[in-house]
Amino acid sequence: MGKFKINGGKRLYGEVEVHGAKNSILPILAATILNEGISVIHNVPRLKDVEAMIEILEHIGCKVSFKGKDIVVDAKDVKDSEIPDHLMRTMRSSIFLLGALIARNKRAFISFPGGCDIGHRPIDLHLKGLKRLGVKIDESYGYIKCEGKKIKGSEIHLDLPSVGATENLMMASVLAEGITIIRNAAKEPEIEDLQNFLNAMGAKIKGAGTNTIVIEGVKKLNDVEYSIIPDRIVAGTYLCAAAMTRGEITVVRALKDHLEPLISKLKEMGCILKTGNDYVKINCDKRPKAVDMIVTQPYPGFPTDLQPQIVSALSIAEGTSIVTETIFDNRFKYTEELVRMGADIKVEGRVAVVKGVEKLMGAKVVAKDLRGGAALIIAGLGAEGTTVVEGAEHIDRGYENIEKALRGLGADIVRIM
Ligand code: EPZ
Asked: Is the CB of 125 under 6 A from ligand 1?
């Protein structure tokens, strides 16, 4: 419900602040049930996915208050271990509760999380890892029933560096008996954020950010107060919007170390970038150049979550770029909408050939997923004429008030029903 109406062609300029990371707060909210006490979290963004996670925490017995950018979770009375189907379907990230519920209640009962528009999103690595920790798992009738009287530390080797599986297994093993080693772990900054949050609770975890994470089980965890990192994907989205509109903007509270892969590609495109500890300034005063190749990879490679946004900016670049999506099996759907705006993009399986055109033309387009939707907004900002992007609800999952942030940079964008 809800659409964005954009009158394109306005050069973005000025400063924008980045909100807290969606992919940090979701696993960290799940982790709040581990201390059977109080967790205070700062710098929390107002996103649909955060509201969905709060609804699930309240459903299982937590008391949650969300004022300004601060969330307080009281997890003393977590009694239920079942996450109802409709809540699982609202947001597949509820899968993060699996590990935390097992650690807390020694059982969990959830429905199979749905796939989504970017791929079928299996959870086999989560379940294989939990079995290594001694969890009995029964998968039938679309439900997953997990029981683990005693969670014992173990060595787990992930076939793929899955972000969610790494985070679920960290949470499942913080109260286990003995030591757990997760090998081939994902290395995303949000995993380090989760480790720092859990250690602030009294857990004993080291190695997040590397491919080997060691968790020494402890008996109990304590109350905690913590502030999450800024959202690198939101920061990168703004930088791509600047490239699309030949703008000059400063993204504040963006940790440059988390944006290196994108920064190097934007420089290849001819943009001028200046970085400080917590800001990235970008100036693109001419038509961007194409890049030979972009291949999405697990961190620290080019992030799949910024693939749609940079493809949007490349659609008006001088030359042809080849973009390969190695993480998800269906993450180029949004390109059909860009073609409606005049882009010249051919997709063959996991490869998109992006032949830059002079200009996109405004059109009515439909967002079907979060980052694809962000790519359509970027396209509308640079297009000639008016673009209406339907499916605002997808974009609201990961961007807090995106129209206000972009208007602050000089964009002509409004939300319409
Ligand atoms: C997290 O999803 C992020 N979501 C995604 O961000 C992000 O795209 C993804 O990591 C990769 O970086 C959150 O953190 C809430 P994965 P996740 O497990 O954990 C396969 C966004 O836009 N796989 O690392 O689901 C899977 O099919 C979202 O903010 C298995 O095969 O990603 C995929 O191909 C989109 N079996 C690949 O691994 C498993 O058990 C990466 O998935 C698990 C994953």
From this structure: yes
Q: So what's the pLDDT on residue 94?
A: 82
Q: Evaluate: CB of 119 within 6 angstroms of ligand 1.
A: yes
Q: 227, 251, 272: which is the final residue of a domain?
A: 227
* Gap between the terminal Cα atoms of the chain: 7
Split into its structural domains, the chain has a count of 2
Ligand 1 centroid to Cα of residue 96, in Å, is: 11
Res. 373 pLDDT band, cuts 50 70 90: very high
Closest by CA to 16, choosing from 347, 286, 410, 314, is: 410
Percent of the chain with pLDDT over 90: 89
Assess whether pLDDT exceeds 80 at residue 116: no
The CATH number of the domain where 96 resides is what? 3.65.10.10
Annotation marks residue 62 as catalytic: no
Domain that holds residue 380: 3-19+230-416
Q: How confident is the model at residue 90 (pLDDT cuts 50, 70, 90)?
A: confident
pLDDT, averaged across the chain: 96
Q: Indicate whether residue 28 lines ligand 1 (CB < 6 A).
A: no
Same domain, 10 and 87: no
- Residue 252 CA to residue 19 CA, distance in Å, equals 10
Atom of ligand 1 nearest to the CA of 119: 27
Of the CA atoms within 13 Å of residue 15, those in its CB half-sphere come to: 6
